[in-house]
Amino acid sequence: MAEADGLDLVEISPNVEPPVCKILDLGKLKYQTQKKTAEARKKQKIIEIKEIKMRPNIDTHDYQVKMKAIQRFFDDGDKVKVTLKFRGREMAHMELGMKLLHQVRDDTQLIAKVEAEPKLEGRQMMMVLAPR
């Protein structure tokens, strides 16, 4: 019947009893499945990790500017990695850095959740936040 119509006999479900087959154009079927996968790929949101760098003795206005940037990143649906760099004698006052990261966490509590707690790696302390 398929040859008479100039179409192909396509096996849809080979594992059922009896196997399910359809008479259709195989080239058209391949094209439609390719279009569906391309459309699904286009609609996917790729989550990026944006980084905000701070210093432990950041001024209040500079802190507010950084917080606006973090808010903008969360609105776009991205994760934010907050990095605190210590230089010289600042290494003796780790509690200031920890206090600043806790302040960031508290200020973004309504719009973000902590994905990675603050931790020290060498001369920098980092924390990862994800949007709610």
Question: Could you describe the 3D structure shown?
Answer:
The structure is a single chain. The chain is 39% helix and 32% strand. The chain contains 4 helices and 6 strands, in the order αββαβαβαββ. It has helices at residues 2-5, 26-43, 60-75, 94-107, and strands at 8-13, 20-24, 49-54, 79-85, 112-121, 124-131. The strands form 2 sheets. It has a 4-stranded mixed β-sheet with strand order 3-4-6-5, with helices on one face. A two-stranded antiparallel sheet has the order 1-2. A hairpin with a 6-residue loop joins strand 1 (8-13) and strand 2 (20-24). It starts with a helix and ends with a strand.
Question: What keyword list fits this structure?
Answer:
single chain; alpha+beta; four-stranded mixed sheet; two-stranded antiparallel ribbon; 39% helix; 32% strand
Q: Any chance you could write out the topology, listing elements then pairs?
A:
Elements: H1 2-5, E1 8-13, E2 20-24, H2 26-43, E3 49-54, H3 60-75, E4 79-85, H4 94-107, E5 112-121, E6 124-131
Parallel strand pairs: 3-4
Antiparallel strand pairs: 1-2, 4-6, 5-6
Roughly how many Å apart are the termini?
56 Å
| Structural class assignment | alpha+beta
* Major sheet summary line: 4 strands, mixed
Identify low-pLDDT runs.
none
Question: Radius of gyration, Cα only, in angstroms?
Answer: 27 Å
- Gross morphology is rod-shaped
Strand content: 25-35%
Average pLDDT works out at 91
Elements, N to C (H/E) = HEEHEHEHEE
Which assembly state applies to the chains in this document? single chain
